[in-house]
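User: Run a structure prediction on this.
Assistant: Running it now.
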Amino acid sequence: MNHCKKGFPKDFLWGGATAANQIEGGFDKGGKGLSTMDMVEFFPREKRSKGKILDLLSRKEIEKILENDLNDGNFPKRRGIDFYHRYKEDIKLFAEMGFKVLRLSISWPRIFPNGDDFEPNEEGLKFYDNVFSELAKYNIEPLVTLCHYEMPLNLVLKYGGWGNRRLIDFFSKYVEVVFDRYKNVVKYWLTFNEINLTTINPYIGAGILADEAKDKNIVYQALHHQFVASATAVKICHEINSEAQIGCMLARLENYPETCDPEDVMVALKDDQYNLFFSDVQSRGYYPGFIKRYFKENDISIVITPEDNELLANNTVDFISYSYYMTMLSSKKIDDEKKVNGNIFVGIKNPYLQNTDWGWQIDPIGLRISLNKLYDRYQKPLFIVENGLGAHDELEENLEIHDDYRIDYTKKHLHQMHEAICDGVEIMGYTSWGCIDLISASTSEMSKRYGFIYVDQDDFGKGSLNRYKKDSFYWYKKVIDSNGKDM
């Protein structure tokens, strides 16, 4: 029996999460430059195994894309769901649900089209002025990600992406501009979205092209440059607005040992350590010993200056945010028939868990486990900034969408989040991923729907783009209105 009477904090930040490259569209509007995500093309599921986003793009492939008319082909992240023109309509719907916070990202190439521009693009800055003004009208706090899976394409083709140390300066200039511009309207910031993707997909995470991505030295040097850039952003943010809070963002994966064999337990420990290495550097301010051993054993050698170490140590994040979708098993031996894909990870299937339509293992209790682990490790406030169910939704003839499965998924995860609060974990808020249907990050599909709001568009961009409220819309509104008491 649960004897915990503790509720969610009075100032708990309920809301939803999005990303510019998945909702905005308008890739060629308002002076915006091309981004890395504008090069990611959709292919039907039968022609791909893990989704085009998980492939690495070469310079030749990008150049071939650029030779064609930019309106040729199916590049879903160029169109998003047209938030660029419909932001007022969408924010009004978020307000109707009662959102206290909206997680969104600023598109770096909308502010600096080429990344190395001398002056920022005023049209891009004005667009976010308008978005933040609309949020303020409904008393919705923006939680802004500075770099969410996209960067100016020019920085990739001209400089080699984050493998080039010069990108620290370009990024610093960009963040200083947006920190100063929005210092009176944005209180909560995140640096890099799921920064651990850099070592899994160097193109999406760090703008590293296919040939260079084979070299671990280049990949981990790029990651280090991102760590330094993140610490620099923390420093600049606090100098411009001492009241602002800035966090890191990790794709969290709990790994359970497949058996009680100590070797499986050790593999699970190492998997866990590696997943947390990224937040260790940003939250503790130094490279942990286990990753130094990993570098040595894998012949990885990167340049880290004394100034870098000092910057990392003195500019740790204020809070830790992360995405949580699933858990996997770890084993000393992974047979192909045991493998299962999910989010950006590949692991072993857990026979005790059910899967989503896309094969992601559903584990609400794992959320409570992750919250306790991270709070024990860091003793800093935590923020669940992504959690949600990607599923096939059907728009009925009466324009209703019955998604009881999404309600059930979210309810179970919120219950475990409440249990973690009862455990003593400090949680700032919860932003459900894809609070409105958007272009999938991992597959570039539209048919993989996460939202409480249905968007009438298919995988090929066809549809009215009309917005319709799902059953989960009304359920989540009730949850927020009651501060989590009525689920």
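The chain has one domain: 13-481.
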